[in-house]
From TrEMBL:
<feature type="compositionally biased region" description="Polar residues">
    <location>
        <begin position="247"/>
        <end position="276"/>
    </location>
</feature>
<keyword id="KW-0812">Transmembrane</keyword>
<keyword id="KW-0472">Membrane</keyword>
<feature type="transmembrane region" description="Helical">
    <location>
        <begin position="369"/>
        <end position="391"/>
    </location>
</feature>
<feature type="region of interest" description="Disordered">
    <location>
        <begin position="243"/>
        <end position="276"/>
    </location>
</feature>
<protein>
    <submittedName>
        <fullName>Uncharacterized protein</fullName>
    </submittedName>
</protein>
<keyword id="KW-1133">Transmembrane helix</keyword>
<dbReference type="InterPro" id="IPR040350">
    <property type="entry name" value="TMEM272"/>
</dbReference>
<feature type="transmembrane region" description="Helical">
    <location>
        <begin position="411"/>
        <end position="437"/>
    </location>
</feature>
<feature type="transmembrane region" description="Helical">
    <location>
        <begin position="294"/>
        <end position="317"/>
    </location>
</feature>
<feature type="transmembrane region" description="Helical">
    <location>
        <begin position="329"/>
        <end position="348"/>
    </location>
</feature>
């Protein structure tokens, strides 16, 4: 049989991105383009008692699965079908890891998965969706321009993973792109209220295909990118959650209405419910990122008060510590450096906040580098201050009559306390760093 244009271009696209050929399963590829899946075939199937929406217009490039695992858990017959919109790089990584990883997981290459900035803070889940329309939204499924080496024609290609998901692992929640507020119905087959599935059960989502939506350059883009722009507005809303109950295998007869699908793949499609979303993995990225930034911000705000106080006290009592004149100077320099440094960091961070590039991590921000430099300076300055402040503690007195051992009480106590606060902060930072490493 002749390969259709969608399948051919999709295959060329996968070649161009070095898709792992050993993890392909071409015998189970299935194209749902208008040519391969005619309009009189059903749009939905019932799988494991749930509606599975056929990804009409998409081409599936099957991914090899662990058949023993699938047979042991009866995955084809009792798990639901779902989608996860993502980038081609993330899709390849997921396929190579044989699963969708959770935020904070460490990949086999040693990279810690963060929640993407444009995703929901604090949501440490794998997200999927029963709706191909929802998975294909621009904030989830990425779109690529691709020129076919066959005829030099330009195409756009969108990427979504097709997965099976264990029903009793799924928490159902409404869409999070603001469609309800604007009364936009995203998917004709599912209400907006049930479009997101999430789970913390990493091994309860199994990838079995990469879906590509191949369009010529003149085709309309129905991905409704504008919907995603409001994602941050709605993400913090509480979601009502419904757990999908486990389905009995007996009730999930495989009814494959698609004459074109291979038996095993069709069974997959019919038995599964649409679940969805890889993109959700990266939602959690948002969360951890924002927490880091919030923590950083709090530290910065608190730390700004200390330099101001140090500057004022050092300046006011600059001649009131004859026993160790370096103590007021130490406070003044500490205050001036602190104010200058933190102001610079504030400016840098506000620029970074506005830029908000999707995959920027806090550790990569310029502000973070400056923060590290400042910490190094203060560390050195703290050691110097300790040499002046702590030995003086043995003989310091606050009666001005004896100039030799006199230091103004407020000045000395503040400098002493400030040193202790800094040592405590260092202790906290070290603990945090060790916590991240291990
Ligand atoms: Zn086709």
């Amino acid at each position: 049989m002749t390969e259709c244009e969608h399948s051919r271009v999709g295959r060329e696209f996968l070649d161009s991105v070095s898709w792992p050929i050993l993890l392909r399963r071409p015998a189970h590829d299935q194209c749902y383009c208008h040519q391969c899946y005619s309009s009189d075939l059903p749009d939905t199937l019932t799988v494991a008692g749930y509606t599975y929406v056929i990804p009409r217009g998409w081409s599936r490039f099957a991914v090899s699965v662990d058949e023993d695992f699938f047979n042991h858990h009866n995955v084809w017959k009792t798990w639901l079908n779902c989608y996860h919109g993502t980038s081609i790089d993330n899709a390849r990584s997921c396929v190579e890891h044989r699963q969708l990883l959770l935020p904070n997981d460490i990949t086999m290459y040693g990279k810690k998965l963060e929640i993407r900035e444009d995703h929901i803070p604090g949501e440490q889940y794998v997200f999927t969706t029963p709706s191909i329309k929802y998975a294909a939204l621009g904030c989830y499924g990425h779109t690529y321009d691709f020129r076919s080496p066959h005829d030099s024609k330009l195409y756009t290609i969108k990427v979504v993973l097709q997965c099976k998901q264990k029903p009793d692992s799924i928490i159902v929640q409404p869409e999070t792109v603001g469609a309800r507020e604007r009364e936009i119905k995203i998917c004709p087959h599912f209400p907006n209220e049930v479009l997101e599935w999430k789970t913390k059960h990493r091994s309860s989502v199994m990838i079995y295909g990469l879906l590509l939506q191949v369009k010529g350059e003149d085709a309309e883009d129905d991905s409704n990118l504008s919907l995603c722009q409001s994602i941050n507005i709605t993400e913090n809303q509480p979601h009502e959650s419904i757990i999908i109950p486990p389905q009995s295998a007996s009730s999930n007869e495989n009814v494959d209405n698609n004459p074109k699908s291979s038996p095993s793949n069709e069974a997959i499609n019919n038995n599964s419910k649409p679940t969805r979303s890889i993109a959700s993995t990266y939602r959690s990225k948002w969360a951890s990122m924002s927490r880091k930034r919030a923590a950083l911000l709090i530290i910065l705000v608190v730390s700004t008060f200390l330099p101001i106080a140090a500057l004022i006290i050092g300046q006011v009592y600059k001649n009131d510590c004859p026993m160790q004149p370096w103590i007021p100077r130490w406070l003044i320099i500490f205050g001036a450096m602190g104010l200058a440094g933190f102001s610079l960091i504030f400016i840098t961070m506000s620029i970074t906040f506005q830029r908000c590039s999707k995959d920027t991590e806090v550790g990569n921000d310029i502000g973070s580098y400056m923060f590290c430099l400042l910490i190094l300076f203060f560390l050195a300055w703290l050691i110097a201050g300790s040499v002046w402040i702590f030995p003086a503690n043995l003989e310091v007195q606050f009666n001005e009559t004896n100039k030799k051992t006199y230091c103004h009480k407020t000045l000395y106590k503040f400098a002493f306390g400030l040193s202790l606060v800094q040592y405590s902060l260092i202790g906290v930072l070290v603990c945090c760093c060790l916590g991240n490493v291990f």
